[in-house]
Amino acid sequence: MKSILDNRPVLAKQVADVAEVAGYLWQKGWAERNGGNITINITDVIDDEIRNMKPISEPVSIGTTLPHLKGCYFFCKGTNKRMRDLARWPMENGSVIRILDDCSSYVMIADNPVKPTSELPSHLSMHNYLIGSGSSYKAALHTHPIDLIAMTHNPAYLEKDKLTYLLWSMIPETRAFCPRGLGIIPYKMPSSVELAEATVKELADYDVVMWEKHGVCAVGENIMEAFDMVDTLSKSAQIYLTAKGMGFEPTGTSMEDMQALKEAFNLPK
Ligand code: 2HA
Ligand code: ZN
Asked: Record's InterPro entries (predicted)?
């Protein structure tokens, strides 16, 4: 079958990276059923032939207006599609969409008319924010990591930056490679515009945010980086839980050692 990826190695590599990450999410147990979603901004690698491609769907409303997305293109996991299927057959379980000039609707252009993720309002709002703020980030990831979600069932961890410092202090990598910490968003209806707005607000301070009792949302330069940050935070959560399971409270890295890391890695917080 003909594919938009044919003879477009750069675009094909980006979709292959999404498929690879989708497989990791499934293997980690973070992607039950259709859980989680991925979108990547592929506008930079779109050529004139793609720009002229006829839509394969009617215009669909996003539910919100996103002025920076005019004429942008995204590869999106499909709604109700499984990560484990996206891993093997990305173009059957995801689609390429074009944002229309009204900035509030999109059409699908390839390869199959797969309706994008139910979290499209939050994903596209994040991309809109990233473009508007001059960021070079192109990827947004939402997934359901067991350990991190479990921690949000304790109200004590919902306090601003409580989890950030706890997770940073479990292993130096987390401090170094998730340097903006972990934002917290109080529970909101999945897929809602309210959840999208709250998520975007937190991106001013964080690359990764928790949706209370639901999951995590991360943005990054590319999908591998977004995944790596969540993976690192989850590793920290597992170290914490393992220590607790052995019956003791982990001591955590001292404030002094944390400060030394901040200076050595030139970290922002
Ligand atoms: O796409 O995870 O939050 C399935 C979800 C919705
Ligand atoms: Zn979810």
From this structure: Aldolase_class_II_sugar_metab (IPR050197), Aldolase_II/adducin_N (IPR001303), Aldolase_II/adducin_N_sf (IPR036409)
Ligand 2 midpoint to CA 214 (Å) = 6
Tokens of residue 235, six digits: 């590793």
Domains of the chain: 9-265 (3.40.225.10)
| Ligand 1 binding pocket mutation candidate from 38, 83, 191, 199 (most atoms within 8 A of CB) | 191
Amino acid 269: pLDDT:
85
- What residue owns the CA closest to ligand 1's atom 3? 190
Low-confidence ranges of the chain (pLDDT < 50): none
Index of the ligand 1 atom closest to the CA of residue 211: 3
Active site residues: 119
